[in-house]
Amino acid sequence: MSDIPTVEPQSIVRGDTVTWKRSLSEYPAPTWVLRYEFRGPASFAIIASADGTDHLVAVAKASTANWNEGLYAWQSIVDNGATRKTIWTGRLEILKDLAQPQAVFDPRTHAEIMIDHLQTELQRTETLMHEAHSIGARQVQRRRLTELRQLLLSYRAERGRELRKDRVARGLPAGGRIKVTL
């Protein structure tokens, strides 16, 4: 099976079957056992099986269907009974399974949601003449326009990074500027 990836995935759709293989010449299977520990919205572990001297990770769809969506940190650990060693670390995002019915689903990223909220708040705030006012005994202060504009610029930059990362993941050019000095 030459189509099995040889690196850990960066994202998994909840409910998908997931497979990858690692060849570790210094830690060959079955002498060494390869295990992955995941921590994030939940905790879980995956133990690779021996495929000759390679380590094969195969997770059934029934298992991934129970994983919580979100961002996880992971460590891969080899162990031969006498020695244990952490060999890699990384991040994994468990994504929604869009084939499952959902009452409400907002496909926007956090940056997109914040851009929309900040633009609405800026439009509302720009019409106000006061930065602070009282309602009964309660003092209400609005963020200053410059602070809102700065937050908006920050989230637009974050969204630009997300778009470039997505383009690269799909094998397309990042689309950023290339500066050349002659």
Can you tag this structure with a few keywords?
single chain, alpha+beta, Immunoglobulin-like, 10 strands
3D structure, described in words:
- The protein is an alpha+beta fold and 182 residues long.
- It folds into 2 domains: 11-95, Sandwich (Immunoglobulin-like), CATH 2.60.40.10; 110-166, no CATH class.
- It is built from 3 helices and 10 strands.
- It has helices at 61-64, 110-126, 145-169; strands at 11-13, 18-22, 33-39, 43-47, 49-51, 54-59, 70-79, 84-95, 132-135, 138-141.
- The strands form 3 sheets. A 5-stranded mixed β-sheet has the order 1-8-7-3-4, with no helix packed on it.
- The mean pLDDT is 88.
> What composes the largest sheet?
5 strands, mixed
Shape: elongated
List the total number of helices: 3
CATH architecture of the largest domain: Sandwich
Rg over CA atoms, rounded to whole Å, is 24 Å
- Work out the count of structural domains: 2
Separation of the first and last Cα atoms = 49 Å
In short:
This protein has 182 residues and is of the alpha+beta class. 25% of the residues lie in helices and 32% in strands.
Topology:
Elements: E1 11-13, E2 18-22, E3 33-39, E4 43-47, E5 49-51, E6 54-59, H1 61-64, E7 70-79, E8 84-95, H2 110-126, E9 132-135, E10 138-141, H3 145-169
Parallel strand pairs: 1-8
Antiparallel strand pairs: 2-6, 3-4, 3-7, 5-6, 7-8, 9-10
Helix pairs in contact: 2-3
